[in-house]
Inverse folding.
């Protein structure tokens, strides 16, 4: 019996969400109301209204079934969009049937709660066989993430705009929504340069190339490519060119995604986590405009470790990573700390975007400072933290969710 009730529910939902137009829903409501009042006696006038509505219904269904078109729908979505911004879904509707189609349209039905259509449905009066009609639908995603959209449907509302009929072919699509953020005018970081093993391999096509600083006598083991043959011939002994090692400013951006068990998300997700992700995007944007190597450590259900900056990757790649980060229900610092500790000897500054302040977060900051790193922490939280913020050696700033959302900061 469960599968039968499940089928009835799914089919009823399909009828209500897709097959019935707004006018069709009002027609059904009128029929039900007339049936309830008119069931008392066939002599009451409202019973005649019920018969008229029922006849209207059957005429629409007969004509709609006889003229049901065959349509092909192709939808082009932007490669990526930003949470809260409008974007256009480009619909191409082709009549692949043998007859002319009337009052045709294309739209999405059953969208997730975080994605909404701004424009009302639009229909085209007629579409001859083999012809194409194109239209744009303005949409908006309210929160970041990778959203799986239902396949768009092509339909006809002929003759009375009460029901949608049509057999359509289309494909599902995924929508990548990047987090929204407010750009920082200035990012004041306590940074210093550290030697990076691998040098140019870390900096891609720009950066400090090994700088020639002079010659010295050859020492067994020096690479042959550094021998200065002209100086050897002039001095009568082998000499090699000497270069300065490469040093870069490398910043670790640590994103806290821990949301304690028991908290329930709203339609827009967890407010503090979304604000922390927006803050991380603002910081990454500011760092990407400078000559920094950025290591992003984001702990969700799994640990994300991503390097960007100095043209090793683009800022958009950082946004794509944080767009897919989910809340972590277990304290992630047990995972982040070991991965970060292996890199601390090469990292100049650790920037933490935390949702709270407690012993585990304090310990991560202190380990970083013990390894010679500078530390800057931004705590995104409304109200008091679990433990008082007492990291005198580092720079710790607390901001509310509203301040992050409204961009009530120009520099950090």
């Amino acid at each position: 019996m469960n599968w039968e009730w499940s089928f009835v529910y799914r089919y009823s939902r399909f009828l209500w969400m897709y097959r019935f137009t707004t006018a069709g829903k009002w027609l059904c409501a009128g029929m039900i109301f007339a049936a309830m009042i008119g069931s008392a006696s066939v002599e009451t006038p409202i019973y005649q209204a019920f018969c008229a509505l029922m006849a209207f219904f059957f005429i629409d269904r007969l004509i709609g079934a006889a003229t049901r078109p065959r349509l092909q729908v192709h939808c082009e979505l932007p490669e990526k969009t930003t949470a809260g911004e409008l974007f256009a879904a480009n619909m191409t509707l082709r009549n692949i049937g043998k007859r002319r189609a009337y009052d045709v349209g294309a739209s999405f039905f059953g969208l997730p709660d975080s994605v909404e259509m701004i424009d009302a449905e639009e229909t085209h009066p007629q579409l001859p066989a083999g012809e194409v009609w194109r239209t744009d639908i303005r949409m908006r995603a309210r929160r970041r993430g990778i959203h799986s959209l239902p396949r768009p449907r092509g339909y006809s509302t002929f003759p009375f705009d009460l029901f949608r009929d049509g057999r359509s072919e289309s494909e599902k699509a995924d929508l990548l929504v990047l987090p929204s953020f407010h750009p920082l005018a200035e990012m004041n970081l306590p940074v210093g340069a550290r030697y990076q093993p691998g040098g140019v391999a870390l900096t891609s096509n720009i950066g400090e190339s090994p700088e020639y600083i002079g010659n010295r006598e050859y020492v067994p083991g020096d690479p042959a490519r550094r021998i200065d043959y002209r100086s050897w011939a002039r001095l009568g002994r082998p000499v090699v060119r000497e270069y300065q090692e490469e040093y870069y400013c490398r910043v670790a951006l640590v994103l806290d995604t821990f949301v304690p068990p028991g908290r329930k998300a709203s339609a827009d997700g967890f407010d503090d986590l979304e604000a922390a992700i927006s803050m991380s995007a603002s910081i990454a944007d500011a760092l990407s405009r400078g000559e920094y190597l950025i290591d992003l450590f984001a702990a969700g259900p799994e640990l994300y470790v991503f390097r960007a900056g100095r043209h090793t990757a683009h800022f958009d790649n950082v946004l794509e990573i944080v767009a897919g980060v989910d809340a972590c229900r277990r304290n992630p610092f047990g995972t982040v700390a070991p991965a970060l500790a292996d890199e601390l000897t090469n990292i100049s500054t650790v920037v933490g975007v935390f949702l709270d302040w407690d012993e585990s977060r304090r310990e991560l900051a202190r380990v970083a400072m013990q390894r010679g790193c500078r530390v800057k922490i931004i705590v995104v939280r409304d109200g008091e933290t679990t433990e008082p913020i007492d990291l005198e050696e580092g720079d710790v700033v607390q901001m509310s969710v509203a301040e992050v959302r409204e961009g009530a900061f120009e520099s950090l």
